[in-house]
Amino acid sequence: MRGVLMLLVVLALAASGWSGRAAARQQGAAVRIVDFAFQPESLTVEVGATVTWSQAGQAPHTVTSETRLFDSGRLAAGQTFAFTFTTPGTFAYRCEVHPARMVGTVVVQGSAGGPLPPGSELRGGQGEAVFGDAQARSNQVHLVIQGVQPPAGAAATVWLAAGPGGPQRLGTLALDTRGNATFTYTDGQHRNLIALFDRMTVTAETGTGAQPAGTELLRGEVNAAATVHIRHLLAGIEVTPKSTPLATGLLEQTALAAEHARLARAAVQNNDLAAARLHLEHVVNIVEGERGPNFGDLNHDERRDNPGDGFGVLTYAELAIQHAQLAMDAAPRDETVKLHGGHVITSVRNAVGWAREARDQALPLFRAGNGAALRQPVDGIAALLSQALEGRDVNRDGRIDPVPGEGAAHTAYNHAQLMASITLTAAAVVAPAPAVTPALALTPGPSPVIGRGVAEASGTRLVLIALAGTAAFLLVLVLAAWRLGGRRAR
Questions:
Q1: Residues 50, 43: Cα–Cα separation, whole Å
Q2: What is the DSSP letter of 419?
């Protein structure tokens, strides 16, 4: 009898003590959000743990699950977000504002960190593709992949597809043991990949064919509604000379104006006033374009010299802003297009301000009579057009951001490419879960502090609570029987 009593007491204490252990797990872990990373990027916790993200960066960031299980929304500096994980599995997340650079993973283990039980989330992976330049405009794509697990004997193969150029096999991923990889493809024919493709897939291939034949692991595409305007920025548009893309034309014409400002400065240093005035004419005509009110023979040599394409920095800028806004309007719910489209507009406006100021400072100099009168203004013009091209680091943080007073033509071009970023996702695969007894399938209401995570209470807690009650009830019965037996013995 004493042995039975001890066993029941142990069961009761173990069951009733479960909530204390769960509370210890609820203390969870902390992740620090900085510009532009999660620290740590990956962490492992137990079921029931609460993870708290603290926003320590200056830029806005989000904590968004790939399956939308949790989403913090935009967090400003100093804000926090917490989520409680109630089921085992691997949960990938990212910052929706900076999806190419800011990704993280939370691994939630079952009891004692053992194998995951049925019902665990088996992730199909995720990825982000960003276009860039390598000896040509947008002829390169860089891909970051996480959590891809192709079947045994198959290779994870990357394809660009859709549009006039697809599909095209880019190569296979060298996956590590966690299914992560980085991959860069450079088009050997120097083709503009944004002009040719708008979709990317990763498939499990056993052959080397020119068409995808295996199971699709990941897929993603440029926002369909915004694609036409993104291509006007980066691939081409009929209204410009040689159908030059707007962001590209702005970058190249601003660079040309900055070059001639430097040539004017060098001519002043050599006391060559005629050459200085000629290059200043080039600066004004490149900035204004042939339809500008100040375009013309400014140095009175009976020629309207213009080494630019005639469209003008200011005209490229005006249309670049217009088409970035059109892309944003066409895809109002696309965070990538909305964010980087705004960055394009801000950076172009900065460049326009500096280019106009350089033009305005150049116009009076055609009346200057000597090199001394030109020297200081020409230095300022060269500095302004350098800023219009590359921007300036106002807050001295070591980078040029797409914010007022910093980003410029180069920044605008880079963020136009980021508007074309492709986020690759796969549907989650969930193993069959065991049937739950209806009486134990109650779900407590959500916590007003933690959010949806607490609302998803596991059946394990309910089972243990039931065991605790049963054990306590049996203990009372046995104690009563024991006392009754003792009285009879007396």
A1: 12
A2: H
CATH of the domain at 152: 2.60.40
For residues 52-56, give the mean pLDDT. Answer: 93
The residue among 221, 254, 275 that closes a domain is 221
Average the pLDDT over each of 105-119, 165-179, 316-330 and give the range with the smallest value.
Answer: 105-119
Query: Are the C-beta atoms of 155 and 468 separated by less than 8 Å?
Result: no
Residue 29: other Cβ atoms inside 10 A: 15
The answer to whether residue 280 is domain-embedded is yes
189 found inside a domain: yes
From first CA to last CA, the distance across the chain in angstroms is 18
Q: How far is CA 192 from CA 164, 196, 234, 417, in A?
A: 12, 7, 9, 11
Q: Residues for the chain: how many in total?
A: 490
- Note the pLDDT tens digit of each residue in 355-365: 999 999 999 99
- The beta strand positions in 342-428, using DSSP E, are 422-425
Angstrom distance (rounded) from CA 290 to CA 410: 23
Domain co-membership, 252 together with 398: yes
Phi, psi of 270, deg, nearest 5: -95, 10
Residues 329 and 391 in one domain: yes
Domain-ending residue, one of 221, 243, 269: 221
Question: Is the pLDDT at 440 greater than 70, yes or no?
Answer: no
Give mean pLDDT, residues 153-160: 95
Domain identity same for 204 and 240: no
Q: 414 and 269: one domain?
A: yes
User: What's the token pair of residue 415?
Assistant: 């963020």
User: What residue type is assigned to position 284 of the chain?
Assistant: V
Range of the domain at 137: 124-221
| Paired tokens of 123 | 């992730």
What are 369's two structure tokens? 């009579």
Query: What sign has the CA pseudo-torsion 247, 250, 253, 256?
Result: negative
**Sign of the C-alpha dihedral computed for residues 112, 115, 121 and 123 taken in this order:** positive
- Together in a domain, 188 and 262: no
Condensed to tens digits (0 to 9), the pLDDT of residues 246-266 reads 999 999 999 999 999 999 999
CB neighbours (10 Å) of residue 293? 6
Distance (Å, rounded) from C-alpha 94 to C-alpha 103? 4
Report pTM: 0.66
